[in-house]
Design goal:
The complex is a heterodimer of chains A (about 130) and B (about 130). Chain A is mainly α and about 130 residues long. Chain A has helices at about 10-15, 20, 50, 55-65, 75-80, 85-95, 120-130; strands spanning about 70, 100-105, 115-120. In chain A, strands 1-3-2 form a three-stranded antiparallel sheet. The termini of chain A are far apart. The model of chain A is unreliable at about 40-45 (pLDDT under 50). Chain B is α/β, with parallel strands linked by helices. Chain B has one domain: Restriction Endonuclease (3-Layer(aba) Sandwich), CATH 3.40.91. In chain B, about 35% of the residues lie in helices and about 30% in strands. In chain B, helix 1 (about 5-20) packs parallel to helix 4 (about 115-120). The model of chain B has no long low-confidence stretch (mean pLDDT about 85). The chains are: A mainly alpha (about 130), B alpha/beta (about 130). At the A-B interface, strand 2 of A face helix 1 of B.
Chain lengths: ~130, ~130
């Protein structure tokens, strides 16, 4: 009986993929949006390079959040000394990068919930390092 | 204090509000029942009136905390940050019909706490005791 699980030689292995090199490649539509990743990334904001890639304004904002945590988002432009519009732009970026977290707090009144900003560990690390 | 910073922030706020009304308002109050040690986020007491406050930032521990308050027989007030969470916890607790300390569990927003405490404690004034719902 022929052995189904017989080990093959390197030459046989190379020969088996020859067809793949010569044949026509038809791209699959479901993978159109995909791209190659050349190295393994990490989502943790505190890792090496991302700490260095913080702009001057972002750093000012992070300093204010670390120094005055759990304040309403509307208080930070004054505390950080930056414009509300700038803060509006950088806030989602810093949340996505894992520096700060938003906590919603509703009062008994009507209207939009207050957003309290909480500094996360990478932000504390960054501000701590820059202060030293 | 245990819990994430947002939880601790709310606990501090609840304790501050409770201390306006009660002589004794202690955060992280520890008690032992049947050899098991439990913690209440805030425990407030004055004379014969005592209240347990639990801060919930998710609905995960709502039932555990209600049972915990039931085991010691203290009325429980749950303080939540959003209306959505409030209705979520209400939905979870409603079918259980738990009445720790003989009173239904109150679920409040942080901003409602002071007003509710005023209303609740006013029922213990001798002139108002007949209006109190048991």
């Amino acid at each position: 009986m022929k052995d189904e699980y017989r080990a093959i030689t390197d030459r046989e292995a190379d020969a088996s993929i020859e067809l793949l090199k010569t044949g026509n490649v038809v791209p699959a539509r479901e993978f159109f949006g995909c791209y190659d990743i050349d190295e393994v990334g990490t989502a943790f904001a505190g890792s090496g390079d991302s700490l260095k890639q913080v702009t001057h304004v972002e750093l000012k904002f992070l300093r204010a959040v670390v120094k005055y945590p759990m304040r309403r988002s509307s208080e930070y432009p004054k505390l950080a000394g930056i414009s509300p519009n700038t803060l509006l732009k950088i806030r989602p970026v810093l949340i996505q990068r894992g520096f700060i977290r938003e906590n919603k707090l509703e009062t008994s009144n009507r209207g939009r919930a207050a957003v309290l900003l909480e500094p996360l560990e990478p932000a504390k690390q960054l501000v701590g390092n820059r202060e030293e | 204090m245990r819990g994430d910073p947002f939880h601790n922030f709310m606990v501090e706020d609840v304790q501050e509000t409770a201390s306006k009304f009660f002589i004794f308002a202690c955060p992280e109050y520890r008690f032992s029942k049947n050899g098991v040690t439990n913690y209440l986020d805030v425990f407030a007491r004055q004379g014969l009136i005592s209240l347990a406050f639990e801060v919930e930032t998710t609905s995960r521990h709502a039932i555990d905390n209600a049972r915990k308050a039931l085991s010691v027989g203290i009325p429980l007030w749950i303080v939540v940050p959003t209306r959505r969470l409030k209705s979520e916890i209400t939905r979870k607790l409603k079918p259980l019909r738990l009445k720790p300390g003989g009173e239904p569990i109150k679920i409040l927003l942080l901003g409602q706490l002071e007003q509710e405490l005023t209303n609740y404690l006013s029922l213990f004034i001798p002139a108002n005791t007949q209006n109190r719902k048991e």
